[in-house]
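Fold sample X.
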Amino acid sequence: MSTPFKIVKEGYDKLAVDYKISILESSIDQLAKKLEIYEKEVSVTQESYQKLKAKHTMLVSDLASKERAADEIARLALREANVVIEQANEHANMIVNEALHTAKTLLKELVRIANEGKESKTQLLEKLHALQTIIEGLEFPMIDPFKDLE
């Protein structure tokens, strides 16, 4: 981007050089202002980056903490569930054992009642047989009911 200047008697054309220098100075000023703006933007961007980085680190740490807490809660819930299941099994076993004991007691009572029933049946049959024998052995006198009426 070189600009050829006219060569005059004492060197280059002073007006053209001065004009070019003023344009370059203006350009340098504009570039310096742009550089200053860009440096401020970079500074603001770096600050934002640092804040976001710190927030990200905090969020990652918080997430890890919450994950550990969730894992602990899940572990405790599983342990509690196992305790509840174990207690339920114990209660179920107690209920089953009580039911078996009651069933055994009822069966024993039923066998006793059945045996008593058999004994009572045998005794009743014997008494019935004895009564039948007595009834068969009864002799009634033969009385003519119309004999006295004549």
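Fold sample Y, listed below.
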Amino acid sequence: MSVSTSPPRPEGASAIVVAGDEETRVLLRGLLRLHHYRVIGEAEGSTEGTELLRTHPPSLMVVDAALAEGSFPVLIREARLLRPEMRVVLVTPTPVRPGDGTPKGSDGPDATVTRPFRLADFLGALRGPTTHRDH
């Protein structure tokens, strides 16, 4: 028998996953569900992700940098306008560097995790502090 030492998710925590690759969506969805997040939607690209934000507002959005359509910087900026209180976690294949186009500050993600990642790093990114934004 295993005992989880992870803190429980916040009451009512719901999530959407936006990733261009089906295997990545399956992995992220599984990790979120395993750690008691309610996954309420998935999208392959920024247009579909933005529509999910409008129709099924989550408390968390996990975005993989590789989208089938659109770009993650545009999606994150749009998410900040639609849901400024929502936590955004970006999953990238390489570390974020200055000048790489990743939104920063109030337009950027709350946390970034580089693939491959350790489970503890991913969970820490999900549960870290969220910067409240006023737009």
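Sample Y note: Strands lie at 14-18, 38-43, 60-64, 87-92, 111-114.
Also: The radius of gyration is 14 Å.
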